[in-house]
Amino acid sequence: MFINPISVTPMLSKNYNNNVAKTKNVHFSGKINPETEKNQLKILLCQDIWAEKLKVKLPETELEKETILEILQQRQKLDRYVRLTNERLRLDGQISYASRLLKENPSHPDLPQVLTEIKKYGNLDSTLKTMDKQINLEAKKNAPAIEYFKNIQKLEEEYSEKRLIKNSAFDKFWHKVQKNNININGQYSTKELIDIIANTEPTGTLAKTSKVKPQPTTKKQILSQIEKQYEQLLRESVDVYSGEAHHNKESENARQIINETNKETLKNFPDINKHLLKIYENIERKFIHKVDRLADTDIYPIGEIWKDMKNVEATMKKTMLEIDDLNSQLDETHENKKLQSLLSEKETKLEELKKDWIEGLNYSIKYESINRERMEDADRLSEYDYLTSENKTLKRHKKAFEILQNNDNTIPDELWPLILK
Q1: Taking Cα atoms as reference points, which of 225, 287, 282, 212 lies closest to residue 258?
Q2: Radius of gyration of the chain from Cα atoms?
Q3: Mean pLDDT, rounded, of the chain
Q4: Smallest Cα–Cα separation from 293: which of 367, 372, 388, 378?
Q5: For residue 308, what pLDDT is reported?
Q6: pTM for the whole structure
Q7: pLDDT per residue as tens digits for the range 107-124
Q8: How would you label 126-150 residue by residue, b for 16+ Cβ within 10 Å and e otherwise?
């Protein structure tokens, strides 16, 4: 069944929230305060913080040196926790791979070697229980260090939402880390890395690249900057597959973010409100025009698939929390058959939910590709790309699908939190 979920009805209402539309008392600034800059560095430097052997680049400013040392000192407390956790994940992966080969392809050349590796662990039930106890013990002993990195994760979510850090920054910074990694062969422990960084002078090149770009000084420059910000925010947040005719909430949120990220500057422009309002309305008309251009093209309603997947995601997150809670209770009560049985049920449920989500992912990617082909046939591809290429759900699905393709049609356990966030 084909439907036309992209409505010709104006998608952004004129009845805006007065508090958002009024910008008379809003000030605009591009300066980054020291705390924000340090938090941005923490987020960028922690991209592989749970790897056993960390990739570390030489600091290029005093602030980066201070931040790297702070992170490494917290990470050093968790070296054993990380090693045990990664070993547990590897063993789980080997067991899962061996089980699948035994069931589907017992003559596969990988099977003998995988079974040999697994046998080295002896009694698996006992080994896994011991590993879990050791991991839980390390987690309890070093709870403040774990909380430190959880707080950085929360900062990442907050800064991404407020656009205080862009997605492109992660790839650019990570490329720099990999290019200048001093631990390229994993030869240094965390303690050794701390010693190296502590005794190294910053190279100074980051000072040139991390400085804030020159800020706009005229009303025209400010309005141009705001125009780009608002358009990008709408492209990211407005979902033309949602079936919704109006997107007041998205436009209000975009204005609030702009107010937050540009405050405390240019107080000399008291009449800027009317110019901003005009910019907002012009961009919204641009959106409406592009939506209208798509209105006569029949497509698959993948928004319905996305709704189902979001419901599965919510249940998965709840189940994961329940599993964590049960593991904590078992760690305290040791052998408790009732809790163990309940834990087993929850873990089985989680695996089924993962299968359901992956099934939805496959449909999402398949039918979006078909929709794209239809838009191209109808000579509407440029409008379609404009309205969907920055869509957060679609981008997340494409990233998850790439992970799936690169891991033998599975998603490793350690990557699910990244996909579900």
Answers
A1: 225
A2: 25
A3: 81
A4: 378
A5: 93
A6: 0.51
A7: 888 899 889 989 888 888
A8: eeeeebeebbbebbeebeebbebbe
